[in-house]
Records
---
Amino acid sequence: MLADIVDSALEEFSNLGRSEIEYNKNDYERKIEKLSGRSSDGRLGCKNDGKGNRGSYLLQYYKTILAVADRELAYRDVRAKNLRETWGLQPGGTFTLGAVKRIFKETNRDKGKAELFQRVLDINKRLGVTFKVSEESSKKRSGAADIYRNFDLYIDGLTKNKAPDYTVPTVMLHEMSHKATVGAINLVKKGKAEGMLTPKQIEGIKTILEIYDRVRNDKERFKEEPYGLTDAYE
């Protein structure tokens, strides 16, 4: 029973953001304090939860959940320290394309990703993308690229217990690819791509826009994977 509780809590907390975990921690700490208090007759932890279960069981349950939450946060702290001391990634900071290239090269082990990275790196450079580091995403993300020229890495998402060791290079590549497509599409839409993108790249973007215009209303055909119809950027 206890092992199942631990497994379930590990899975739940590994999916939550730090602020959510801390909120849950405070809630469990209040429950533990309440159950640990003395009853009117001086006995400890013997309150009833209304379902016939003794308070001692609930007390053990809450303490177990609290320990799992502490473990998850401690794990994230260790990984965050490593990101900070190894690559200088910390909330509130910015980093250059040179730093991005170094980090990716040192952490990536996939040849295919390395080849793709070189391509999107050049486009991000042309677009003048700004790279930032933030603490936590309200949407529980590890990274995000907006429609302008900003690219964010979120320390909390990168350091979750469930995040594999290759999360950093994977997120970098994913968001830089988004940045490359978003920035390039915007340039073409605004008629400002000349000199920023190659003729082949401009033609490719126009093809993407044309294809999207043709299929965006075909919801039935893409009902199993509709996310790609969100917009031309996806």
---
Amino acid sequence: MKTQNGYISIPKDGVISLSLQKEIEKALPQPLVRPGFTFVKYEWIELSQIKYKDKAGNTDNPVRLDGTKRDGETLRASLSKGIDVRELAPSVYPNNNLMNGHHRLYELKYLGYRVWVFAVYQPDNASFTEFQTTLEDALEDFRFSSNDGKGQRPVTVAEVTEGVRRRFANDPLDKPKMVKYIKSLDLSFSGQQCDAIANKVIKDRSRKGVIEYYDRDKALEYVDGLGVHLLNTNAGSSVERLMPFIMQNFVNNGTPLNIATFDSDACSHKEIDDKQEISLDKLEALDNLILQYAANRLINLDKKPYEVKGSIPQKIVKDVPMPEGLV
């Protein structure tokens, strides 16, 4: 068996010797081990026999929010070289139902291949996690996990967020349990990312039927043409960022700047009211501070209100020790 930079060329007509098949199978990485399924064997399957439509007739990987990408020039170039034995084979479960590798299947057919090697899995109810009650649950989790290795488009935070939303749709809001579920997918997400996903799902459900959600883009679209500047009462430095616009407008026009507030994180009416009050109080306090600063500045024009003492040393020079203190 001859490999070329990790690739083994195979004929596109599907006529592959049994010995070459076995050698390729032996060279492939260890199959993915995930709850809900057990690896059985490798099998060389006619691509026309692979079933890849869901119950609604969709042909994309259902865990993907934007569907299966069709512009994979890099993947197409890779597959044209043959089988990359450094990568996991695409997977199927009984009756040749595709588990992952939807994009790969599309490109293989485009390139004219008739047969490819697949990892065959058998459902294993005994290995279900506490978060899996159906085969569909286990299959979704498998798909998430199989899109976290090299060679695949990494699963996104937004996609996992939707997965968590679906999995806990009928369960009580339980952040530790949600975080535990995300970690069970064995993704390369930080603890902070797992917390953020759980928080978003919890907040979105808490505000459902109570608060209309607006992020900045949606808020900008809403106020388009109204002649106002936005103040997000949830953002920590929103007031400080807005103040220069208020000052410049007053200097140029002598008129107030029209402002509209919104809260990108509120889950209750009280939260909207409270955070709006806090932000407007902060805005007024900052305006008063500016007035006091201007008054003192006018009677001390000969004094610069700041002095640069130096910089923290950051420039590394070979064989020269870093200086102490400021430079």
---
Amino acid sequence: MMKHEFDSMVGITTSDECYERIEYVYMNSNDFNTKQEIADFYKQHDMNGIEKIYKQILEQKKERHFVIQIYSANHSFIFECTGMYEALEAITDAATTFNFVVNADEVMCLLVEMKHGKKLSHQNHKWGISLKDGEV
């Protein structure tokens, strides 16, 4: 979602700093599936509601994170991270390093499913990913 789209939906111009928080909440919360849902929430609860959810997300990220395991011929590498984009980057970097193919769109869909609790893990012959509780 672009800032101008959100501003149009809520009928005001948000500051860049506020929009960064709004976008973060939209991308990392299980509560919003559409742009309209977060716009409606903002209209009802303004930045106070966004800040409350933002802080909850940060606390949850301390508790739950992605564990990525890369399998090569002689070794197994483990990488832990908190964010979906960080996980995607780790998997695509590993694919380049260890010469296997991943579809970034499919991996992102998998990470979103995991974030929303629809899937707890994934594994194939080259890499695996799961969610783990506790700090990284």
